[in-house]
Amino acid sequence: MTDVTSTDLATIYAKPTARVLAKARPEIDIHARKFIEMSPFCVLATSGSDGSVDASPRGGHPGFIRVDGPHDLLMPDRPGNNRIDSFKNIVEGSGLLQLIFFVPGIDETLRVGGRGAVTTDPALLAAMEEFGKLPRAVLRIEVSEAYFHCGKALMRSKLWSRDTQVEREVFPSISQVIHDQTRLGDPETQTEVEARYKTQL
């Protein structure tokens, strides 16, 4: 098997059209703003100073990431596993990041790129209370690019279709999975995991 080179790519794929290139905007416009305000979920991708890459899910009520201007987003940090890989990458690496926003029921997604900085400004923390809790930190994002992806990937996956949803019991609880992998801690049932999660949102 031969790995593809840059020259090979040019022969395999046609050049993007002018419209595809032009859709990448240098700021959050009215359509991107509306999409972010409707979005309860996104994936945050960052890269570390050693070249490692991290992608992590982020979620909250629709609009949990606040549009603070055409070049500014604010993302509250909620309780997680305390690895803080994303934040380490941002403060120790280049700070460059990418976000992909999802809105349930809409197959198109929104990609936003920019540079991040982590803050614990008390006024910002207080303004971003959710689930009865203040965030521990806020990620400020200086937006440099935003564009919509077509809906083909989500259409192929049928991500929003009820027909493709699996019954939760076909896969073990995350607690059981980690116990099997590490032999650390006591395994919990899915019901116990969900009950615990609800107290930690």
State the order of secondary-structure elements, H for helix, E for strand: HHHEEEEHEEHEHHH
> Could you list the spans in which at least 5 consecutive residues all have pLDDT below 50?
none
Portion in helices: 25-40%
The main sheet orders its strands as 2-1-5-6-7-4-3
Termini separation comes to: 47 Å
Protein name: Pyridoxamine 5'-phosphate oxidase N-terminal domain-containing protein
Domain Pyridoxamine 5'-phosphate oxidase N-terminal: 31-150
Write structural notes for this entry.
This protein folds into 2 domains: 14-158, Electron Transport, Fmn-binding Protein, Chain A (Pnp Oxidase, Chain A), CATH 2.30.110.10; 166-201, no CATH class. The longest helix has 9 residues, at 30-38. The model has no long low-confidence stretch (mean pLDDT 95). The protein has a 7-stranded antiparallel beta sheet with strand order 2-1-5-6-7-4-3. The chain has helices spanning 6-12, 18-22, 30-38, 85-92, 122-127, 152-157, 174-182, 190-198; strands at residues 41-47, 53-59, 66-69, 72-76, 96-103, 106-119, 138-149. A hairpin with a 2-residue loop joins strand 5 and strand 6. The radius of gyration is 19 Å and the shape is globular. Helices cover 29% and strands 28% of the residues. The termini are far apart. With 201 residues, the chain is α+β, with helices and mostly antiparallel strands. It is built from 8 helices and 7 strands.
Helices and strands in order:
Elements: H1 6-12, H2 18-22, H3 30-38, E1 41-47, E2 53-59, E3 66-69, E4 72-76, H4 85-92, E5 96-103, E6 106-119, H5 122-127, E7 138-149, H6 152-157, H7 174-182, H8 190-198
Antiparallel strand pairs: 1-2, 1-5, 3-4, 4-7, 5-6, 6-7
